[in-house]
Amino acid sequence: MGNSRVDLSYLETFSGGDKILIAEMMERFVLDAPDQLKSIDESINLGDWKSAYKNLHNFKSTLNFIAIQEIKDQVLAMEKIAKEETSVSTLKEKYKLLFDECKLLVEEIKKTLSQ
Amino acid sequence: MNSSELKIFALEDNAVFSKMLHYILSMDDEHEVKMFVNGRDLLYALDENPSVITVDYSLPDMTGEEVIHKIKAKLPQVPIIVISGQNDIQTAVSLFKLGVYDYITKEEDIRERLLNALNKIKTKQSLEEEVQTLRQELSNKYEFDNSIIGNSTPMKKVFQMLHKTTNNNITVSITGETGTGKEVIAKAIHYNSNRKNKPFVAVNIAAIPTSLLESELFGHEKGSFTGAIAKRVGKFEEANGGTIFLDEIGEMDINLQAKLLRVIQEREVVRIGGNKTLKLDVRIITATHRDLSLRMNEKLFREDLYYRLLGLPIHLPPLRERENDVILIAMFLADQFTASNGMKKLTFTKEAKEKLLKYHFPGNIRELKAIVELSAVMCENDTISDTDIQFTSSQDVNSLLNKDLTLKEYTFEIIRSFMDRYHDNVATVAKKLDIGKVTIYRYLKEMDTNS
Questions:
Q1: Chain A hits for B17, Cβ within 8 Å
Q2: Which chain B residues have a beta carbon less than 8 Å from that of A27?
Q3: B33 contacts B10 by C-beta, under 8 angstroms
Q4: B260-319 confidence digits (pLDDT tens)
Q5: Residue B70's closest CA among B106, B109, B92, B42?
Q6: Angle at which helices B437-450 and B426-433 cross, to 10°
Q7: Do the chains contact at B16 and A16, CB–CB below 8 Å?
Q8: What's the gap in Å between the CA of B108 and the closest CA on chain A?
Q9: Residue B362: what pLDDT?
Q10: φ, ψ (nearest 5 deg) of residue B12
């Protein structure tokens, strides 16, 4: 994975380059991402495939705006596992990686917002 | 809400995407946007009549399909745009089959695609509103009181009959001389019935060559005969759900009458050269200036078809029997003509009215229209006088009086004129002239001897 985990191209196209809205969306991500990650973690630990799939699918939409493709692909792979109900242990491992990536992503966004 | 305004309901459970969606949808001041995070709340709010709904395919409380089914059940006409995180063709196809308006994926071009879809919906709604307005205008134009002028005794009978046609689908057969307004009556029946929002299709049997009429009425498949280069939908099919008006039905070729009878009996049609049977729900109104019973006796009109088409018979009296209606119609036609030509409203002098009342109008309302329009152009000072009124027929009373005849010769002329006017019906002529039938026969015999 390269240096930056943030990709704002989707958000810029979507918002038509509205800087205020882009900043608002970044703030929104910083606020929402921890809760969404927590929900994913809980559903995986409970072995609730259906909830895990829904939460991952939802988080994918959130990441779509802001993260680089590698992180989006990570969620996509997890979503597939949850949908096909294949392996809880793999899902747990992948969650750890995703959590770490998102932590760094949030920090990077916070830094950008403070500038 | 006019056609450029849209009340948009957007169902999106992802908070971040929901914010973005709200931002895009609200960019246009004429959009009223309401966001929903679950299907249940959206379905509960459908009573507020949104003009378009966007639905996220993956929802927390129910599937996108489930929501779409429920929206369609309650608001079948409201366009639904599905916004999905997955670019899945199979899902898209199945959603289109459910009747969704568009399927947009959460890709980078979502903003453009969404706005395009909304613009198309606005255009469609604007056209639908226009069609609705035009239909309403047409419906108002053909309300019995607006489209049919007259309060003479014979027309009161016509109005009574017309009101019997409104709440049912009975076949109506209209008879009357040329120019008495048979098509206007047919349209009025259609636009005052529960079929008024469906097509009214008029076919003038006399104006279509016999060789083409079958295809015109029932349609044909491509290649069914030489010259059938493309499929053609027939008039019956075109009128499905509405009304077909078969004008001058008495002129229909006897061989085609058998085919028409089958279509009417079976309530279905098969295009020429086709094998698919199409079910019909069409109200039939016919018109003729002929006496169909006479045509039937002459074996020119099928008896079985005659009785099938008779339904509710409405006879339109000729203008000469409509008493003061002539003046009412003349004034209406003058108003219509001046309004459409940007002219001042016209009035008729007493003498002009008397002149109109004395004339027998062999061409009926069509002739009156031509006379009024010509006099409207010829008149001075916004008043139509008797000298502005020019009759096309030489049979008017004034021209008769201009002749240098003996009293007996005048009597003969009058008898001849009345016999022509009332189709040699001695009883009617005797009644009109207030003399005995024997006297009429005596004059006729004398005229015959003299000639």
A1: 61-62, 64-65
A2: none
A3: yes
A4: 999 999 999 999 888 889 999 999 999 998 888 888 888 899 999 999 999 999 999 999
A5: B42
A6: 110
A7: no
A8: 5
A9: 86
A10: -155, 120
User: Are the beta carbons of A64 and B85 separated by less than 8 Å?
Assistant: yes
SS (H, E, C) A49-67: HHHHHHHHHHHHHHHHCCE
Residue A57 contacts by C-beta under 8 Å, 6 or more apart in sequence?
A79, B58, B85
Beta bridge partners of B246: B203, B286
**How many residues are recorded in chain B?**
451
Reported as type and span, the H/E element at residue B245 is strand B243-247
Q: Which residues contact B149 (CB under 8 A, 6 or more apart)?
A: B325, B328, B329, B332
pLDDT above 70 (res B55): yes
Domain B6-135: CATH architecture, name and number where available: 3-Layer(aba) Sandwich (3.40)
Counting every residue written for chain A, the total comes to 115
* CATH architecture for the domain at B319-394: Orthogonal Bundle (1.10)
Task: Report ipTM (2 d.p.).
Answer: 0.76
Per-residue pLDDT reduced to its tens digit, A23-77: 888 898 898 899 999 999 999 999 999 899 988 988 888 888 888 889 989 999 9
CA distances from A6 to A20, A73, A99, B302 (A): 17, 14, 15, 85
Residue range(s) defining the domain that contains residue A36: 9-114
B214-243 residues touching A, CB cutoff 8 A = none
Q: Quick check: helix, strand or coil at residue B35?
A: strand
The nearest CA of chain B is from the CA of A113 a distance in Å of 17
Q: Any chain A CB within 8 A of the CB of B24?
A: yes
Rounded Cα distance between B245 and A49, Å, is 65
CA atoms A45, A48, A54, A56: torsion sign? positive
Q: Do B85 and A28 touch (CB under 8 A)?
A: no
- Give the residue from B272, B153, B279, B176 showing the smallest Cα distance to B222: B272
Token couple for B119: 């613009």
CA gap B188, B272 in Å, rounded: 32
Contacts of A57 in chain B (CB under 8 A): 58, 85
B142-316 CATH pick, 3.40.50.2300, 3.40.50.300, 3.30.450.20, 3.30.1330.10:
3.40.50.300
For residue A11, pLDDT over 90 is answered with no
- Can you spell out the DSSP letters for B349-379? -HHHHHHHHH---TTHHHHHHHHHHHHHHH-
Q: Which of A8, A14, A102 to mutate to test the interface with B (most CBs of B within 10 A)?
A: A14
